[in-house]
Specification:
mainly alpha; 6 helices
């Protein structure tokens, strides 16, 4: 498997979550899109390094619970969005929906698989040296950034919906991704 293929595969959850982020964003799209994509790209870059550092010792621990952790985080954030959809206030800015704390949690939840992949990257893509690993994880981070950026703007096509419906859409997307993660675990 090439590093680019691995990067694209790891970026899929982040790109899908970016669609829901974009769906809820009416104002400051470029700023929020860039910050969102940067969070996802950064965590997809860092987590394989952490996984690589943990090595074989941590693979059993994280491999057994990574999908459960991601499911719980995505379920909580999705449920929060569904609950927030009950708000009668139609003034809706994406800054208030995805603050730093929420972006951090989403980035962690969507990059837990990258943590586990960091353990096998030397074998799967031939990144045996620290320099090769740096190139590989940089590629993963950049691909994730690009796909998340595109996903955000794809989702922004849904931003014409009433804020209530955009929140419902985004919440359901997060819950479905969490369920997919749990089932495929």
């Amino acid at each position: 498997m090439s590093a680019a293929a691995l990067g694209a595969a790891l970026a899929m959850d982040a790109a899908a979550v970016s669609v829901s982020c974009g769906a809820g964003c009416k104002y400051k799209r470029l700023k929020v899109c860039t910050v969102t994509a940067a969070f996802f790209g950064f965590f997809q870059l860092i987590m394989p390094i952490l996984g690589w550092s943990i090595g074989k010792v941590g693979s059993g621990v994280f491999g057994a619970v990574d999908h459960i952790i991601a499911f719980i985080i995505l379920l909580i954030l999705g449920a929060k969005m569904l609950f927030d959809a009950r708000d009668k206030n139609d003034i809706y800015e994406c800054d208030s929906l995805y603050g730093i704390k929420e972006l951090f949690l989403l980035a962690v939840a969507t990059s837990i698989d990258a943590l586990a992949s960091g353990i096998v990257i030397p074998v799967s893509v031939g990144a045996d040296t620290p320099a090769e690993m740096a190139i590989t994880v940089t590629m993963i981070g950049l691909i994730t950034f690009a796909l998340s950026f595109l996903g955000f703007f794809t989702g922004s096509a849904f931003s014409k919906l009433k804020p209530k419906y955009a929140r419902i859409f985004g919440g359901l997307v997060l819950i479905l991704i969490g369920m997919k993660t749990l089932i495929s675990g």
